């Protein structure tokens, strides 16, 4: 989605405020959000904590964002130093002073040395803090952290999404859907559908079945069905009727659609 020159979701962490449990050799927490993805600690691009149990790194986004995913960039130099970025937990917190955390994602295998891994949240979460923590004793070394999301707003007037630019499309035209997920408790307006209560797919121009498919012939190893479909006629408000038919032949241990017309 493109809104005012930005592609949503985009990196909302760069240049924000970061901290970590400890610091080694001047490898401050802000190195992970400076926009430099160089994988070399020697280039001054990576953070580094002491060896400790459950070391953590945190970025304060300054306000609430809708967060989709967090990408971690691992160290590529220093011999075995890249082996520690594994068994990672990423959490989202409502604010710096809140203990209300949401588990975004976990990743057990080692992130490839000099590589990166994007960890998608189970669902988009609303939060201000992103916390990266190892679940074992080791130093936490991060060469960059990017957080994909967009600024959270309490939308009104049946709108949702980035800058409240999208319509809810609820059946009840007075309903305000969820500003992030777009769930309509009244169902979808005519011509709209979606998943899990959302109504963001425009079906008004989609062809659809007018009746259930009919079985026109059947043998021991084949089946022919037909169905009717309506599709819009370009440039007018009329509809044009089409008839479709398909034959399916069942082969041993396989099912192949061999002909369609």
TrEMBL record:
Domain (Fucolectin tachylectin-4 pentraxin-1): residue spans on this chain: 9-153
Gene Ontology BP terms: regulation of cellular defense response; regulation of complement activation, lectin pathway
Pfam families according to UniProt: F5_F8_type_C_2
UniProt-recorded Gene Ontology molecular function terms: fucose binding; metal ion binding
Assigned keywords, A-Z: Calcium, Disulfide bond, Lectin, Metal-binding
Quaternary assembly: Homotrimer.
Family membership: Belongs to the fucolectin family.
Function: Acts as a defensive agent. Recognizes blood group fucosylated oligosaccharides including A, B, H and Lewis B-type antigens. Does not recognize Lewis A antigen and has low affinity for monovalent haptens.
Name recorded for this polypeptide: Fucolectin-4 isoform X2
Protein species of origin: Lingula anatina
Gene that encodes it: LOC106170821
């Amino acid at each position: 989605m493109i809104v005012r020159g930005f592609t949503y979701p985009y990196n909302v962490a760069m240049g924000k405020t970061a901290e970590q449990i400890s610091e080694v050799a001047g490898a401050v927490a802000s190195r992970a959000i400076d926009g430099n993805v160089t994988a070399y600690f020697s280039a001054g691009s990576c953070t580094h904590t002491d060896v400790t149990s459950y070391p953590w790194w945190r970025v304060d986004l300054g306000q609430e964002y809708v967060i989709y995913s967090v990408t971690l960039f691992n160290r590529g130099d220093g011999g075995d130093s890249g082996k520690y970025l594994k068994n990672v937990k990423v959490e989202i917190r409502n604010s710096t002073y809140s203990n209300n955390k949401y588990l975004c994602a976990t990743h057990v295998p080692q992130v490839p040395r000099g590589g990166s891994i994007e960890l998608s949240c189970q669902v988009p979460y609303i939060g201000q803090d992103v916390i990266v923590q190892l679940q074992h004793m080791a130093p936490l070394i991060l060469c960059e952290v990017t957080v994909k999301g967009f600024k959270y707003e309490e939308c009104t007037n049946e709108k949702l999404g980035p800058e409240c630019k999208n319509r809810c499309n609820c059946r009840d035209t007075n309903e305000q859907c969820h500003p992030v997920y777009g769930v309509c408790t009244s169902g979808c307006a005519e011509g709209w559908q979606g998943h899990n209560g959302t109504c963001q797919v425009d079906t008004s121009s989609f062809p659809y079945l007018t009746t259930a498919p009919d079985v026109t012939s059947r043998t021991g190893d084949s089946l022919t069905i037909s169905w009717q479909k309506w599709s819009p006629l370009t440039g007018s408000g009329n509809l044009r009727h089409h008839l479709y038919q398909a034959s399916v032949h069942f082969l041993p241990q396989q099912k192949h659609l061999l002909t369609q017309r």
